[in-house]
Amino acid sequence: MPGIAAPLIAWYGRNARDLPWRRPGFGAWGTLVSEFMLQQTPVARVIPHLEAWLTRWPTPADLAAAAPAAAVTQWANLGYPRRALWLHRAAVEIRDRHDGLVPRDVDALLALTGIGDYTARAVAVFAYGDRHPVVDTNTRRVLARAVAGLAQPGPPGKGDLARMSAELPSDVDEAAVVNAAAMELGALVCTARAPKCDACPLAAQCAWRAAGYPASEDRRRRQATYEGSDRQARGAVLKVLRDADPAAVRLDDVVPKWPDAAQRDRAIDSLIADGLAEAADGALFLPR
């Protein structure tokens, strides 16, 4: 068994959080929706939205039959609302190309709108039980420290999959546990700013710890401040449209008191360009 696998499996068995998508019978569609929602969004915020989403649209066909506006509205305040639009498009593709069943094949998953290397493999592994490396930000950090001896991982790349693959046991079930455990360890223990090394199951073999915790360049992309940003303006515009849906809102009535009129107009233009809003006859509305 690879070096980090055995301690990860043992640690995960004692410490894994009870999360909806880890429960038996959760299903591929639920897994896919959860992975869309979990991108750049904390688990605690995702869970109630996920439950409401799956209650409203328990299958891809159910979502595909709804208007895109319904998906954007249901997304509410999860952030990065293009994910809602991509998830709706993916549901349409699943209905039309795969008879309404979330595909198992990684290449078929990658061909769906909004799905990248991580999400495709997460669905194949956690929903269907296949053996693939699953690499998210937390996994990359664990590998950087425990295996490569670096304080922070470099930029994401295809090599991440090969590095994780080298750590997976040959047993399919154990490989799935190692994938989940590496992500869980990075989320709970091997955190970016305050790692709890004394509680880490990999402490005895961690290359970074053995080297004396050397600093390395932190090349993580920094997110711009939300307050006063174009993202905040986009969110304000979308809230107006969600609250009004299915009615349209006159352009002059879309956050008219926003402190920067040019920023507001830029937000509207960007939402239209992203397909999150449509304009006609001097009014703005969610995509139909």
From TrEMBL:
<dbReference type="GO" id="GO:0051539">
    <property type="term" value="F:4 iron, 4 sulfur cluster binding"/>
</dbReference>
<keyword id="KW-0411">Iron-sulfur</keyword>
<dbReference type="GO" id="GO:0006284">
    <property type="term" value="P:base-excision repair"/>
</dbReference>
<dbReference type="GO" id="GO:0006298">
    <property type="term" value="P:mismatch repair"/>
</dbReference>
<dbReference type="GO" id="GO:0032357">
    <property type="term" value="F:oxidized purine DNA binding"/>
</dbReference>
<keyword id="KW-0234">DNA repair</keyword>
<dbReference type="InterPro" id="IPR011257">
    <property type="entry name" value="DNA_glycosylase"/>
</dbReference>
<dbReference type="GO" id="GO:0046872">
    <property type="term" value="F:metal ion binding"/>
</dbReference>
<dbReference type="GO" id="GO:0034039">
    <property type="term" value="F:8-oxo-7,8-dihydroguanine DNA N-glycosylase activity"/>
</dbReference>
<comment type="similarity">
    <text>Belongs to the Nth/MutY family.</text>
</comment>
<dbReference type="Pfam" id="PF10576">
    <property type="entry name" value="EndIII_4Fe-2S"/>
</dbReference>
<dbReference type="InterPro" id="IPR023170">
    <property type="entry name" value="HhH_base_excis_C"/>
</dbReference>
<dbReference type="InterPro" id="IPR044298">
    <property type="entry name" value="MIG/MutY"/>
</dbReference>
<dbReference type="InterPro" id="IPR003265">
    <property type="entry name" value="HhH-GPD_domain"/>
</dbReference>
<keyword id="KW-0378">Hydrolase</keyword>
<protein>
    <recommendedName>
        <fullName>Adenine DNA glycosylase</fullName>
        <ecNumber>3.2.2.31</ecNumber>
    </recommendedName>
</protein>
<keyword id="KW-0479">Metal-binding</keyword>
<feature type="domain" description="HhH-GPD">
    <location>
        <begin position="37"/>
        <end position="188"/>
    </location>
</feature>
<dbReference type="InterPro" id="IPR000445">
    <property type="entry name" value="HhH_motif"/>
</dbReference>
<dbReference type="Pfam" id="PF00633">
    <property type="entry name" value="HHH"/>
</dbReference>
<dbReference type="GO" id="GO:0035485">
    <property type="term" value="F:adenine/guanine mispair binding"/>
</dbReference>
<dbReference type="GO" id="GO:0000701">
    <property type="term" value="F:purine-specific mismatch base pair DNA N-glycosylase activity"/>
</dbReference>
<keyword id="KW-0004">4Fe-4S</keyword>
<dbReference type="Pfam" id="PF00730">
    <property type="entry name" value="HhH-GPD"/>
</dbReference>
<keyword id="KW-0408">Iron</keyword>
<keyword id="KW-0326">Glycosidase</keyword>
<keyword id="KW-0227">DNA damage</keyword>
<dbReference type="InterPro" id="IPR003651">
    <property type="entry name" value="Endonuclease3_FeS-loop_motif"/>
</dbReference>
